[in-house]
Amino acid sequence: MTAAASLSALLRDRRSVRDFRPDPVPAQTLEAIVADACASPSWSNTQPYRLAVASGELRDRLSREYCEAFDADREPDGDFETGFPYPADLLPRRRATGFGLYRHLGIAREDLAARKRQMRRNFEFFGAPTVMFLFVHRGLREFAVLDAGIFLQSLMLSAQARGLATCAQGALASWAGPPRRAFDVPEDYKLVCGLSIGFASQDPVNAFDPGRVPAAGLLLAPR
């Protein structure tokens, strides 16, 4: 397989996995994935992001803190607001993904308890043995978030190439307190998202594929 074909396969096969096996990811594998992501390009090579990685007992402690905040309906303390209205032109895609997932799982729209249980799975890291937290430097404004997105994609593709699965989770940015208490986060860095990583289980949830807009739907027409 050519390099182009391998890259295409990685991009097209990667999915947001929402159920993981408990098997731990070897430390050297995690180190290799992070090392790959460090080759990502960034604004003036500033690399305006920091990454926190938690496995084992630390991972379990973080999950407990997140679940406690979720169960108590605690006021979010995140660095970015995650509960905002979606723009009208993007809302149909968001709804198609959310409603599609619940249909795939057999969760009725009016079954609020089941919907809440599924949402809580975010804070259990979907059972993944490792969770990562990505922080961006406030001083580089929106360009730090742009660079963090590139870094995050590199992390996910490197994991995919090694037979691992991932799920990028904006929900984990709702509460920044747990990772800030667990890690020495520099004052100028804001939590933008989390990433669960591990080996995908055989749970039917992992067969869900929301699809993507084809290239023609994203390209702008010339005037």
**Number of DSSP E strands:** 4
Distance between the termini: 40 Å
- Helix % is 25-40%
Radius of gyration over alpha carbons? 18 Å
Would you tell me the structural class of the helices and strands? Answer: alpha+beta
Indicate the CATH class of one domain.
Answer: Alpha Beta
| C-alpha geometry | globular
Output mean pLDDT: 96
Order of helices and strands: HHEHHHEHEHE
Low-confidence stretches: none
Q: Any guess at the CATH architecture of one domain?
A: 3-Layer(aba) Sandwich
CATH superfamily of one domain: NADH Oxidase
Number of helices: 7
Q: Find the CATH topology of one domain.
A: NADH Oxidase
Largest sheet: 4 strands, antiparallel
Characterize the structure shown:
The protein is of the alpha+beta class. The protein has a domain at 16-82 and 123-206: 3-Layer(aba) Sandwich (NADH Oxidase). It is 40% helix and 13% strand. It contains 7 helices and 4 strands, in the order ααβαααβαβαβ. Strands 1-2-4-3 form a 4-stranded antiparallel sheet. The termini are far apart.
